[in-house]
Amino acid sequence: MTYIIAIDGPSGSGKSTISQILAEKLNIEYLNTGLMYRAVTKYFLDKGYGEKTEDKILKKLLDEITIDFKENNLFLNGCDVTKDLRTDEVTANVSWVSARDYVREKMVDLQRKIAENTSFILDGRDIGSVVFPNAKYKFYLTASALTRAKRRYDQGESEMTVEEIEKSIIKRDNYDSNRKVSPLKVAEGAIIVDSSDLNIKQTVEKILSYMEKSDVL
Ligand code: DC
Asked: Is 183 a residue whose pLDDT tops 90?
């Protein structure tokens, strides 16, 4: 029997690190859905379009996009762009892109297809609420905005200070939580895990301890 684990939560809550470790421990596949929205954002920006562009044009661009994964690397129209998806420019634009219903529709279809017949852990914002509402396990991973900003800073991929990152995180949280389509929220039946005072190992252990109470392990 295959099963799905949904890990949702705001940016910088450690979802991707924790999900990767869990996938390895449980010997199941991992899908980072945030990367997919980032790839679409990169494509729009590379073509010279932005938030003010008409939906008609963006829809046409979206039709040109194919997204594939190989060993957790994302291939956009056949090219590995994984390393270009966490730039400040993509990060600053991904919220408006992921708020477009037609973008979400294509990404959600793809996510369901990828995880169709295999056990998967998926991380994102709407996995437990929209993509796989019947997931066997649902977690909502969170942490304070400052903790999350420090973690992003320590990753060394941003040119900004901790304070600037914190501000941009709060802005993105507001945008993601208040958008009309699939807003970031705690899915029905999800267990909330606050990792502000937990390191990676402790967070993984906490999640596993919830799962050990059931029949997967
Ligand atoms: O997890 P992340 O920070 O890489 O996600 C980038 C953006 O994509 C984030 O601002 C919200 C959006 N996103 C989404 O709307 N739905 C998902 N399932 C995953 C990410």
From this structure: no
Is the residue at 213 inside a domain?
Answer: no
Give domain status of residue 217, yes or no: no
* In the chain, % of residues over pLDDT 90: 84
CA of 215 to the centre of ligand 1 (A): 30
Total domains present in the chain: 1
Domain membership of residue 196 (yes or no) is yes
Is residue 22 in some structural domain?
A: yes
Distances, alpha carbon 138 to alpha carbons 25, 130, 131, 190, 191, in Å: 17, 12, 12, 4, 6
Q: Please give the pLDDT value at position 215.
A: 53
Atom of ligand 1 nearest to the CA of 122: 18
Ligand 1 residue neighbourhood (C-beta within 6 Å): 11, 33-34, 37-38, 94-95, 98, 124-126, 172, 176
Question: 77: domain range?
Answer: 4-208
CATH number of the domain residue 52 falls in: 3.40.50.300
In one-letter notation, the amino acid at residue 214 is S
pLDDT at 55 over 70: yes
In terms of pTM, does the model score above 0.90? Answer: yes
The model's pLDDT over 100-149, given as tens digits with 9 standing for 90+, comes to 999 999 999 999 999 999 999 999 999 999 999 999 999 999 999 999 99
Tell the residue nearest (CA) to atom 15 of ligand 1.
98
Contacts 24+ apart (CB under 8 A), 106-109: 106/62, 106/65, 107/33, 107/36, 107/37, 107/40
